[in-house]
Design a protein that fits this description.
Elements lengths: L18 H11 L4 H7 L6 H8 L7 H11 L16
Length: 88
Amino acid sequence: MSIHAPDARSISSRGEACPRRSLAATIATGASSRAALSRMIDRPDGYLTRFINDGVPRALRPDEHHRLASFFGVEERRLGIRDLWSAR
């Protein structure tokens, strides 16, 4: 499965991918629902919907980002995870 680059709305003013918008755009390109993907990362059905729409939790855990990125065949940075050790 080939995923396109995020559109301009998925990029923050600092040029970083916005995690919520990037994830929503990536999910929209696939055939899996937010509920199914939430279950895949061992969370309740509404977990990713709440993350995207309500900002709860503030961030996904690194292992959740990794599993979602692996599922979609993209780098974790594509989904908006940031490198905590890189210079800002």
